[in-house]
Design brief:
Layout (H helix, E strand, L loop, with lengths): L1 H52 L3 H40 L12 H24 L4 H27 L3 H29 L2
């Protein structure tokens, strides 16, 4: 009787550990997808904005590359500061409770910063690659919009799968948001370029 009870307890502990590990992993993956989506939308929008007034490929690529580097650095620094604050809070709490500080169980600020920068860069590289080899202006704009559209749908679907949300609705929301950001940036930059507002 006692042995059966012990086995049940061990099964419950094992199940809760597995669930905990999965939810932690899913949280990291969702953060990576969101970081990649940020890189994709901000870099594509920046390139579309510059492309609205400067038709040469060099200007678009340089603006996209600068946006990718600046965005990746910004994401990494933000994540580093945020996770380091969390790290300090957890260490202080362990010390107050007189618990031995196990550093391997604490969040790693450097790892989080590197992951955030990498995720942003993965998203940002999509519009850069789409525009890099196309000389003709109109074809280049279409190539960027097409590549970004495919990536937005993929990121939306992946985010939905990880968050266990409806895939179609999530993909549509991410797609519409990305299109809106590119359209607004293109339109406003075109307006300023034409009328010098």
């Amino acid at each position: 009787m006692d042995q059966g009870h012990d086995n049940t307890n061990m099964d419950i502990e094992k199940e809760s550990t597995t669930t905990f590990d999965y939810s932690k992993r899913a949280q990291w993956l969702r953060a990576a997808v969101l970081g990649a989506n940020d890189g994709l939308v901000s870099t594509a929008s920046l390139m579309m904005g510059v492309g609205a007034v400067k038709h040469d490929v060099k200007a678009m690529i340089l603006s996209g590359f600068a946006g990718m580097v600046a965005g990746a650095c910004s994401m990494a620094i933000g994540e580093f500061v945020s996770v380091y604050s969390q790290y300090d809070i957890e260490v202080a709490q362990m010390e107050r409770e007189s618990v031995e500080v196990e550093k391997e169980k604490l969040p790693s600020p450097l790892q989080a910063a590197a992951a955030s920068a990498l995720a942003f860069s993965v998203g940002a590289i999509v519009p850069l690659l789409a525009a890099a080899f196309v000389k003709e202006y109109r074809v280049r704009i279409i190539a960027v919009v097409t590549a970004v559209t495919v990536a937005l749908v993929a990121f939306g679907w992946l985010g939905a799968a990880l968050g266990k949300a409806p895939a179609v609705r999530s993909s549509a929301r991410v797609l519409f948001g990305g299109w809106l950001a590119m359209a607004v940036t293109f339109g406003l930059t075109k307006l300023i370029g034409l009328y010098g507002l």
